[in-house]
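Help!! Second protein's tokens look totally different from the first
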Amino acid sequence: MSRTDRGSRVIAAPAETVYRALLDREALESWLPPDGMRGRIERWDPRPGGGFRMVLTYLDPTDSPGKTSGATDVVQVAFAALVPGERVVQRAEFASDDPAYAGTMTMTWDLTRVGAGTTEVTVTATDVPPGIDRAAHAATAYAVLAMGKSPRALAAT
């Protein structure tokens, strides 16, 4: 049975700015990694059919073993659809031998203008692998939606 996780938040930024942040390599490296991890994008091709490869490294892997190695998660992300100012659709696959992380998870970022300079961002993750903890996934989605782990993330785009 497939699992869907969803979250939304209103951000004090125009939809076009949020869209650019979702396609900005440095911004993604800054705010996409979950708390307790750092991210590095190794391959970057921001166009429909393109994508990126992100290596997520646990700052302290003692209590959180990686999916790919003892200290890392590697995820291949393809851009399935890009609609400027409205939507980004990503298909993500974790590099892991563990079947609990197998499959392709689709992340859809919908941007809805709700006022002058404000945007509701809704992220919907479908076909979430069962190995991804629901509570941790929700907490990460909320932090990402805040896009505030680095105030520079939106200001720089």
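Here's the second one for comparison:
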Amino acid sequence: MSPIAHDRSAHNRSAHNSWVKYTAFGLRIASELTLPELIPAEPGLVEDMVIRQVDLSAWRDQLEQANFVMQGERFMFLIPDTAIYAIRGGKEIEVSMLPGADPDTVRLFVLGTCMGVLLLQKRVLPIHGSAVVIGGRAYAFVGESGTGKSTLAAAFRQAGYQMISDDVIAINVTASAAIVYPAYPQQKLGLESLLQLEALRENKHVRQRKHVLSLTDGNPVRAQYQDLRRIAGELNKYAVPAVDEFYNDPLPLGGVFELVSDSPNRESMREGEPVVVTEQPLNKLECLHTLLQHTYRRAIIPRMGLGEWYFDTAARMARKVEGWRLLRDSSFFTASEVVQRVLELIHKEEKSYGSH
């Protein structure tokens, strides 16, 4: 019996009434797995996708020899000691947990890689970054790992703005606009960022990184962080709830900011202080390159046969939004300065549009 025939019966079952229903990424989800990170759906919701547990063990040997397997409209991959996952037709995520698997780690890949693949199957572009709401629009922050995307979103939350997504930004590019769908109210933040943000909130901001160790000496995890769940596979990163500062409706994308860690330029001064954040506007071609560079799980897109759709969608999106590159001094904790500069750039852009 083939692996598909082995688990075919799972696809003929409708979602059981006892399954919990959620909303995320513009999707109505019925899940056999409990997903505490997500927002529960309103009663009576009719799901447009399901997350179910099935037996995919017949695929294990093949998946151990390859990073992933494409079987018709189904994309499959294996995470050792965790689970086998299958994503089908933009409508189903199947999870086959391995013995002894950590449930938190299982969910991490459901809400990350699985959702990224499912969005691609639905022709929704997943961008790797964080997004916040400013002036009725969503603004995306992208960049390489460690450039401070999530930290910046947390600094915006702390300044009174709402977050719409962290890690995976789901964007549907229509004929008239690029629309950002809300993800779920949680961030991944490192301990250093949490401590710096706390110091900023208490007006005890420690700007230079070399001094940050004074915040953690002899007390690596403060009491207020002990209840936070550590992110599996991430060094000193924690799952931080953001329910009160989460925006749960779709919004047009207003712009994209690429964060780049830069070496300090001590000669640049403003009002007697070193300039720790500078910006470069992106032309449409540069904006397209930025979107392509920071698409979530972009390496698998050609193997899914979506290369032409991907480039066309990113190009249409680049024509609809403004883009900037923000160079920040990597020797400083610059979140508050970046927040201020982003708001100034957006305000300037709005005034420019208003004058036409």
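Reply: Different proteins will give different token patterns, so don't panic. Residues 190 and 237 are 4 Å apart (CA to CA).
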